[in-house]
Amino acid sequence: MKVLHTGDWHVGRTLHRRQRLDEAAAVLDEVVDIAWREAVELVLVCGDLFDHQAPSAEAERIVYSTLLRLREGGAEVVVVPGNHDNPRRLGAVEELFAAAGVRVVPEVRRPDAGGVVSVAAGDGTRAQVACLPWVSERLLFGAEEMMGLQPETYQAYAEQLPRLVGALCAPLDPEAVTVLAGHAFVSGARLGGGERELTIGQIFAISAATLPTTVQYIALGHVHRAQDVPGAATPARYAGSLLQLDFGELDQVKSVTIAELEPGKPAKLQEVPVTRGRRLVEVHGTLDELEAQAADHADAWLRVTLVCEGPQPGLADRVREILPDALEVRLDYPREDPERRAGDLRRLTPRQLFERYFREAHGAPPAAEVAKLFDELYEEVTGAAA
Predict the structure, then answer these.
(1) DSSP per-residue string spanning 296-343
(2) Single residue among 209, 238, 273 that ends a domain in this structure
(3) End-to-end alpha-carbon separation of the chain, Å?
(4) Which residues of 247-284 are buried (b: 16+ CB within 10 A; e: fewer)?
(5) 179 and 30 part of one domain
(6) Residues 143, 89 share a domain
(7) How many H-runs (helices) and E-runs (strands) does the chain carry?
(8) Tens-digit pLDDT profile for the chain (386 aa)?
(9) DSSP 215-265
């Protein structure tokens, strides 16, 4: 059975207030093309389809039409939500998608109550997919109780979640293709750079050694860098995000994973690049050098470092005239010795400190009304004139 593993679409994500729905639509079109071209029989979407729990109507249209087109290509489609998704929202459309042949598992369920999805390929090969949506720390206790596990008081998330996964995978048939599709953080995985920090800390990190060995392949979402999970006894992989979502991801080639699975045999994995998203690029130079490079970055989002003599009014505007897709503009100019600067700052009044900060940040002194407002606020807070 040929399986396409993807996730972390994050449809609706903006970058410095720039909307990227057109990029998301283009790269998801590419995923559909790959699925059809490779004649995959099963597609696993491992969470974070959306970037927000209340996505826009356009974001929903892009995601839902992609799932339906993947199904139209002949593949079975199984979806689990991630921490960015709203499980109730996906649960509301579960039955509608089921009518079209798309299986959505919006919350953790017992294996015999929808937690394990069974599908069959055209040649009769059976597959069983154990589905692990994102489980928050708050919901883990209830999920364990539902699975029939005896709660262990004061046990950490990283110890409890593997117990839950073990119970989910226990009844899988070894005569079938067996897969765990989940959204979770495994310790040792290299972060992509655009993940939400609250859900990638050690409190949520499960050990690779605790991943189940009763499945042939573990398809994961949550980490944006495509990679095999180090230390896993069973082939386990993050497919990664489809777009470079943040400048922390600018060095990464985005992809989907194709897994060829046969009962009782090792998984064969292939990384297939996706290229229709705009690149994120860092650019460094003087105004003249930036102008000379402009044609090379016509289809990229840019973080620009301008080499200059110091802050001046209008520098950022000048950069954006040359490079309209510059999202960040930073200045690189000679700065004072830190020790001398610290001594100088200690001799300045609060009003002078504010004026100095404003001048360095904006390239010009504050307007009279801004300085007056600072005086009023400072007096209100301290009871002393600035």
Answers:
(1) GGTTEEEEEEEE-SS--TTHHHHHHHH-TTEEEEEEE-----HHHHHH
(2) 273
(3) 74
(4) bbbeebebbbbbbbbeeeeebebeebebebbbebbebe
(5) yes
(6) yes
(7) 11, 19
(8) 999 999 999 999 999 999 999 999 999 999 999 999 999 999 999 999 999 999 999 999 999 999 999 999 999 999 999 999 999 999 999 999 999 999 999 999 999 999 999 999 888 899 999 999 999 877 665 666 666 665 554 458 878 899 999 999 999 999 999 999 999 999 999 988 877 666 676 778 899 999 999 999 999 999 999 999 999 999 999 999 999 999 989 889 999 999 999 998 889 999 999 999 999 999 999 999 999 999 999 899 999 999 998 888 888 899 999 999 999 999 998 876 555 555 567 778 888 888 888 877 766 788 888 888 988 888 888 765 44
(9) SSEEEEES-SS-EEPTT-SS-EEE---SS--SGGGTTPPPEEEEEE--TTS
Residues 203 and 343 in one domain: no
**How far apart (Å, rounded) are the C-alpha atoms in residues 52 and 83?**
9
114 in the same domain as 245? yes
Query: Alpha-carbon distance 14 to 243, whole Å?
Result: 11
Round to whole Å and give the CA distance between 203 and 77.
Answer: 31
Overall number of domains in the chain: 2
By residue range, what is the domain housing residue 292?
279-382
Provide φ and ψ at 81, rounded to 5°.
-80, 155
Q: Are residues 247 and 377 in the same domain?
A: no
Phi, psi of 295 (to 5 degrees): -65, -25
CATH, residue 32: 3.60.21.10
Closest among 163, 105, 160, 92 to 133, alpha carbons compared: 105
- DSSP symbols for 34-77: HHHHTT-SEEEEES-SBSSSS--HHHHHHHHHHHHHHHHTT-EE
